[in-house]
């Protein structure tokens, strides 16, 4: 098992990304220590934290829209709190425990097959949404031609269902032991295109980018133009989801962004941006979960169950 794990490409990509990021930090260490934030910069980081928290809630709402589209929204189950609470589990080694928790909770209400489809389609839609936003960056050495492909796959049932079932088989093998039971591979069971779930995920990625843009503004790092930053962020976010070897995509997102835009801006400032954004995104996950937990506890105290 250990040898099999070491042979996985995702593991090596993650290790290479972390090594690249670490080398950049060492190389730019002196310049990083010379960067000082003014009071305006701290306020911008705080705004970025608020926007990133909001994006997590939007992501939860987008997941609810997806389950509505599947016709499998469980009555009486608070989906957004479930999504936000389980989101913290992505930081555990393995990168699957947030999926395990969602399948575990959804399975009694909607069945194992639909639960698995609803959980796997969410990150696929995020990747498709982020890929669409690559269009903002123009040609980008041919990336423009690839940007619509993930959305095209998800919007056309003849393409979506075979891809989804293949991914379900792969994830079912990982999740079955953890959720204690068989996970049928049935696909989405839907014809048509998930336009609304995809649109909701586009909104999520845009708000996520707005939080990142606050970090850029905090360190006075706005050139190149906003569309190029959006395209670079979208690419890095999509790659971080596709290669989730490290907890929360740690290292992969940062390395992709550095490789894509590091040559066009001051590298030390970009490192400061990605470091601050990593801290903000992690704190936002914790804060969003804490706020929703406190809200649920307050509602239960004000309106106790009979």
TrEMBL record:
The chain crosses the membrane at residues 42-66, 112-135, 198-222, 229-250, 270-294. The keyword ATP-binding does not apply. It comes from the Bacteria. Keywords: Cell membrane, Membrane, Transmembrane, Transmembrane helix. Its main location: membrane. It holds the Pfam family LPG_synthase_TM. The keyword Transcription does not apply. One of its GO terms (cellular component) is plasma membrane. Signal peptide: none annotated. It is found in: Cell membrane. It is a multi-pass membrane protein. This is Glycosyltransferase 2 family protein. It comes from Parasynechococcus marenigrum (strain WH8102).
């Amino acid at each position: 098992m250990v040898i099999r794990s070491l042979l996985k490409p995702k593991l090596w990509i993650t290790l290479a990304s972390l090594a690249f990021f670490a080398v950049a930090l060492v190389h730019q260490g002196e310049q990083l220590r010379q960067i000082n934030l003014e009071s305006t910069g701290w306020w911008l980081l705080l705004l970025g934290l608020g926007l990133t928290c909001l994006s997590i809630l939007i992501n939860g709402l987008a997941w609810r829209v997806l389950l509505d589209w599947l016709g499998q929204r469980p009555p009486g189950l608070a989906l957004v709190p479930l999504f936000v609470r389980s989101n913290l589990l992505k930081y555990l080694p393995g990168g699957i425990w947030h999926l395990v928790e969602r399948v575990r909770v959804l399975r009694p209400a909607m069945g194992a097959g639909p639960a698995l489809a609803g959980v796997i389609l969410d990150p696929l839609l995020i990747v498709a949404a982020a890929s669409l936003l690559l269009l903002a960056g123009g040609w980008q050495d041919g990336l423009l031609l690839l940007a619509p492909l993930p959305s095209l796959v998800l919007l056309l049932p003849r393409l979506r269902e075979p891809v989804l079932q293949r991914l379900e088989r792969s994830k079912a093998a990982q999740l079955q032991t953890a959720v204690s039971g068989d996970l049928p591979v049935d696909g989405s069971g839907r014809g048509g295109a998930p336009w609304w779930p995809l649109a909701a995920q586009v909104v999520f990625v845009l708000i996520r980018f707005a939080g990142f843009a606050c970090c850029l503004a905090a360190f006075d790092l706005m050139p190149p133009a906003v569309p190029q930053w959006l395209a670079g962020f979208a690419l890095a976010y999509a790659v971080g989801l596709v290669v989730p070897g490290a907890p929360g995509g740690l290292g992969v997102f940062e390395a992709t962004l550095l490789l894509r835009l590091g040559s066009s801006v001051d590298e030390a400032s970009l490192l400061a941006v990605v470091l601050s954004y990593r801290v903000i995104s992690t704190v936002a996950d914790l804060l969003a979960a804490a706020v929703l937990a406190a809200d649920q506890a307050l509602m239960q105290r004000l309106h106790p169950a009979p």
